[in-house]
Amino acid sequence: MAERVFINDVGPRDGLQNQSKILAPQQRLELISALVKAGLGAVEVGSFVSPKAVPAMAGTDEIVAGLPPGNTYYSALIPNRRGYDLAVAAGVKAVGIVVASTQMMNEKNIRQSTEQAMAGCAEIIAQSKLDGIDTLAYVATAWECPFEGTVDASVVIEMTGQMLDMGATRVVVADTIGAANPAQVKSLMGALVNQFGADRLACHFHDTRGMGVADVYAAVQEGIRHFDASIGGLGGCPFAPGATGNVATEDVVVMLEQMGFDTGINLPRLVEAVDLATELTGNCDGGHSLRWVRRQIEKGVL
Ligand code: COA
Ligand code: ZN
């Protein structure tokens, strides 16, 4: 049997948070439903952040209340304890907590120092254990920071170890601005897997320099089996200048399936989700593989 790789579609959060066109909660739910229909096992559905900071994510509580039932692993991003409390009150069962590797990125993103952010992360994870909530702890800007430049691997290794010790369900190593090349991914993920094992690690890549799938490949070779990706390649962080969309879910699925992995995702239905994302946002190019995938569907091969 083919080995499973798990994809978490972050389009409804990372993809939509930076769009100039703000979608209504009902439209965001339509996109989430299309992803669930395509077989995505995990979806990041929104964030509990200040609506002044990220207007596009207002109303995530309504999203959580209206999620399609089933076994999909839904998570929501939070920047602080306030976000955690709001997420739990809304009924969220898994939260993404973000701490960047550098002081400046933390200050720009969540107005906290790295020390404050790590202390907040520890407090939230401790509370999550009492509440029975999963925590996906993100190390953002894990290779390069838009403000401080190249990040030393030892910083990321140290933070990952601390987050795992705090009890994070999984640590997600994130190339927030899409600056890492596959050799750097191999080096850092290899070191992390050596030290902590692959099971509790995941990767999050952006396709800014066209290296998104190459980075996924490098991480897969190091044993990583959990990835974030975004439908149609939507995405970008409003607080990280220069970041473009995430690696496209369809590109990751095409590559992994052709390598013999099982993603559980139905490509024709995934293309329907890309079309919906395009219709809703008016700003979705689709992944590099999209035209090829469409041709295979037309030919009846997929
Ligand atoms: N959800 C909703 N509102 C929140 C909030 C949360 N998690 N945390 C704080 N707020 C509100 C406060 O109530 C306050 O509102 P007011 O101006 O109406 O009184 C306002 O945000 C500022 O609160 P404060 O405690 O001073 O926040 P801060 O300045 O220390 O932090 C953040 C600001 C972190 C809340 C804000 O910048 C934010 O939400 N950023 C989002 C980051 C993000 O999504 N990045 C992209 C993904 S990595
Ligand atoms: Zn991202």
Question: Your description of this structure?
Answer:
- This protein has 302 residues and is an alpha/beta fold.
- Helix content is 44%, strand content 16%.
- The protein contains twelve helices and ten strands.
- The protein has helices at residues 11-15, 25-37, 60-65, 81-90, 103-110, 114-131, 153-166, 182-196, 212-221, 249-258, 267-281, 290-299; strands spanning 6-9, 42-47, 73-78, 94-100, 134-140, 144-145, 149-150, 170-175, 201-205, 226-229.
- The strands form two sheets. Strands 1-2-3-4-5-8-9-10 form an eight-stranded parallel barrel, surrounded by eight helices. Strands 6-7 form a two-stranded antiparallel ribbon.
- Helix 8 (182-196) links the parallel strand 8 and strand 9.
- The protein starts with 5 loop residues before the first strand and ends with a helix.
- 51% of the residues are buried.
- The structure holds coenzyme A and zinc ion.
- Zinc ion binds at residues 14, 174, 176, 204, 206, 235, 237, 246.
Q: What Rg, in angstroms, do the CA atoms define?
A: 18 Å
* Hetero groups: coenzyme A, zinc ion
Bin the helical content: 40-55%
Count of separate DSSP helical elements: 12
- Strand % is 15-25%
Intertermini distance: 20 Å
Contiguous uncertain segments of 5+ residues? none
Secondary-structure element series: EHHEHEHEHHEEEHEHEHEHHH
**Chain-averaged pLDDT:** 97
- The helix-and-strand class reads alpha/beta
State the major sheet.
Answer: 8 strands, parallel, barrel
The tally of beta strands, per DSSP, is 10
Shape: globular
Strand order of the largest sheet: 1-2-3-4-5-8-9-10
